[in-house]
Write a structure and sequence with these properties.
alpha/beta; Aspartate Aminotransferase, domain 2; seven-stranded mixed β-sheet; four-stranded antiparallel β-sheet; binds pyridoxal-5'-phosphate; transaminase activity; Kynureninase
Length: 406
């Protein structure tokens, strides 16, 4: 497996290669930052041009004729297909942070008849998720408190004080994948709800939200769903909770009859009650294109390739980079890992610079972490080989440069 040819052969029989052909990629650039921003699908520009034409020609009619106002729920259902949610439970909303705010407020509110007042979370959760939870205790539910614990202690910490547990399904740094079904079951036994952030799993890790008994989830549109910069995120509320579920930003489009323009708020009976105002239509069309492309991929093939790419990356890094002090961080067992790999290196900054100059786009987390998103829809096996080979060369050059001259 040390030979480039071996990886080329894997790519030649890759069942996802037809999907890769539908992305607008540069031959000389490799997108290892799909965990941050996926590349554009070929169809996106056409979709946006079409919308521009309708904006110019049809004026206001687009909102009605083209069902643009229904798009948050239509695209939501398409996302539901990717995350294992039956129709009517997913809607596109605002940014992931704002969506999390809405669902977390609603979850604490659902528990307001009980003594439960703790929001339990991983102390290393994505910072925005931590800030949002803190903000809710300061500005909305002042009786609530946030309990931050190490992720390995989450299950033991679910007690009778916990109203809601909120976690990232895949950790944004280490790629640790949490056992969703087990945590849901444990929380439900204790009477707590669980709110998942799917930002680093939807589109690359198989998800069965309904089957796992999930209560609530949010996720990001611009990472592995390929929705484009600033694409809105989405919210999932299980059917069984929806009739009682309230969210705090009660705007006109969440109303059951928005065009009656009445003075009293009555929430839509369905998932549209989570919406607030006009959707960001151009971004939403781009998201719909990304989601439609992502949904074409067979989830089993996506997972199989994601695991293969990660294992190849880890094996090659071990064989070729360990001697330069580069270490793989995060879980070694594929069953506990999402679809990115992080490397720890004292030379992380020069490595990131050298890789960028060679066309490998990835994320540097200063001072010493490099994150490689291994998005199976467009990353090839040979890209992994070439990237590790480039790192080996950069490290060898650096070592030669710093060695004492004879
Ligand atoms: C990327 C990401 C977000 C994004 O939040 P925005 O509000 O859409 O910027 C939220 N949570 C996690 C875990 C993320 O990785």
């Amino acid at each position: 497996m040390e030979q480039r040819r071996y990886f080329e052969q894997l790519d030649a029989v890759d069942p996802l290669r037809n999907i890769r052909a539908q992305f607008d990629l540069h031959d000389d650039r490799i997108f290892f930052n799909g965990n941050s921003l996926g590349p554009p699908p070929l169809g996106t520009a056409k979709r946006l041009e079409e919308a521009m034409r309708r904006w110019r020609d049809d004026m206001n009619a687009g909102w009605w004729d083209h069902r643009w106002l229904q798009l948050p729920t239509l695209t939501g259902d398409r996302i539901g297909g990717i995350i294992g949610a039956a129709p009517g439970q997913v809607v596109v909303g605002e940014s992931t942070s704002v969506n999390l705010f809405k669902l977390l407020c609603g979850a604490v509110e659902l528990q307001s008849g009980s003594e439960r007042s703790v929001i339990l979370t991983d102390r290393d959760n994505f910072p925005s998720d931590l800030y949002i939870a803190d903000g809710i205790t300061r500005y909305v539910h002042r009786q609530a408190t946030v309990r931050r614990v190490p992720v390995d202690e989450i299950i033991d910490q679910i007690d009778s004080d916990v109203a809601v547990v909120t976690l990232s399904h895949v950790d944004y740094r280490t790629a640790q994948l949490l056992p969703m079904r087990r945590i849901n079951e444990r929380a439900h036994e204790a009477g707590a709800l669980v709110l998942w952030d799917l930002s680093h799993s939807a589109g690359v890790v198989p998800l069965e939200l309904d089957a796992a008994g999930t209560d609530l989830a949010v996720g990001c549109g611009y990472k592995y769903l390929n929705g484009g910069p600033g694409a809105p995120g989405y919210m999932y509320v299980a059917h069984r909770l929806l009739p009682r579920f309230e969210q705090p930003i009660t705007g006109w489009l969440g109303h059951t009859r928005p065009f009656d323009f009445t003075g009293d708020y009555q929430p839509d009976p369905g998932i549209a009650r989570l919406t607030t105002g006009c959707p960001p239509l151009l971004s939403l069309l781009a998201l719909d294109e990304g989601v439609t492309l992502t949904a074409q991929a067979d989830p089993a093939a996506v997972r199989a390739k994601s695991v293969a790419l990660s294992e190849e990356f880890i094996a090659l890094a071990g064989a070729r980079l360990a001697r330069y002090g580069v270490e793989v961080t995060g879980p070694v067992d594929s069953a506990q890992r999402g679809s990115h790999v992080s490397l720890h290196s004292e030379a992380a900054e020069p490595l990131a610079k050298g890789l960028a100059a060679r066309g490998f786009h990835l994320e540097l987390r200063p001072p010493d972490l490099l994150r490689f998103g291994l998005a199976p829809l467009y990353i090839r096996h040979v890209d992994v080989f070439d990237c590790v080979a480039a790192m080996e060369q950069l490290l060898a050059e650096e070592t030669a440069d710093s060695a004492p001259r004879q």
